[in-house]
Amino acid sequence: MSDLTTFASHVQEVVDDAFRIRRWEPGEAHKYMAKVGQRRAKWEALARHLCQDVVRPRLTTVAMLFPNATMSDEQPPHSVTCLFEYCDRFPALATIEFSVEHDVRFENVVLHTRTRLMPVFVLFNEQDNLPLPLDGVDDEEVADWVEERLLEFIDTYLRIDAVGGTLGELSAIDPVCGMQVLQSASVATGSYCGHPYFFCSEDCLAEFEKDPTDYVQVKTM
């Protein structure tokens, strides 16, 4: 490790080399940032509109069908979230979130959705994106995409109820994180001493394979 003086000298050299090259003409950077600011303002207005006028009404329609569903009031800007609490019929916590994001130059709008399910009983598409040019966003196209994602979520959520009667036979406990997973829907599987194990993620499987004895006890005769 170099001392602070050496580090400061190296940083100074890097900065000096960069400043020797003029990359912006006088006033050019200001004009560029002004254009970016205009695009950002347009994106913010569009994001508010899509969340409030396109996404929220459709997500609210779904939430009204489930007594355990609640539209979240605590959420980041430009996003809409619905929470599904644990209940006897649906023994899992579920969340579906839609957000309106942007690229680094505010030239494109990115619709993003993410579904969370805990514990994982069924296979499902966790997230999806719809990129659109800032000047080419069509409400009908966005609405169709949102509705398709919501129908996918409903199908996933209803499958929790469908497997409820057989969870005792079909479920297993991930030995690494302790999550209950459906054997037929587990993301990864492994074995140790002839016994199969089921995992919620490849990361848990990799951790297990480092040293299975950290997570299971093998009975010896």
UniProtKB/TrEMBL annotation:
Matching entries from SUPFAM superfamilies are given as: Ferritin-like
Q: Please list the residue ranges annotated as the TRASH domain.
A: 174-212
Q: Which SMART domains match?
A: TRASH
InterPro entries documented for this protein: Ferritin-like_SF (IPR009078), RNR-like (IPR012348), TRASH_dom (IPR011017), YHS_dom (IPR007029)
**Origin, by domain of life?**
Bacteria
Q: Please list the GO terms describing molecular function.
A: oxidoreductase activity
What is the protein's name according to its record?
YHS domain protein
Organism, by scientific name, is Botrimarina mediterranea
